[in-house]
Amino acid sequence: MTLITGLDHVLLEAPAGCEPAARAFYGGVLGLSEVPKPTALQARGGVWFALPDGRQMHIGVTPDFAPRLKGHPALRCSDLAAFSACCAAHRVSTRPDQEGGVPRLFLHDPFGNRLEVVQG
């Protein structure tokens, strides 16, 4: 019997004081809606965002922050060309790739964490 029923959220680490940059990038560039953090967790810093499929992307503060250069979340996008144009308009560098068998691109958040966006 499988007890795991799915994925609830992904947390990416960021340095203290990351909240304005996280809101600008994840909310402004990626267009994700902010989700209020539970009161008990607000003092820890960071910011949470809703993904369109009901899952969440959490940006959490860690004291000895180091960006994730390999491990990363892969987000889906219905129009990768439009997403790439949006990134260009916001001066966010992307690197297209098709080695995974589907059109995709890689980029980094303001903290240096690697992100993948997949067409589909």
TrEMBL record:
Signal peptide: none annotated. InterPro entries: Glyas_Bleomycin-R_OHBP_Dase, VOC_core. SUPFAM superfamilies: Glyoxalase/Bleomycin resistance protein/Dihydroxybiphenyl dioxygenase. Residues 6-120 form the VOC domain. This is Glyoxalase. It comes from Deinococcus arcticus.
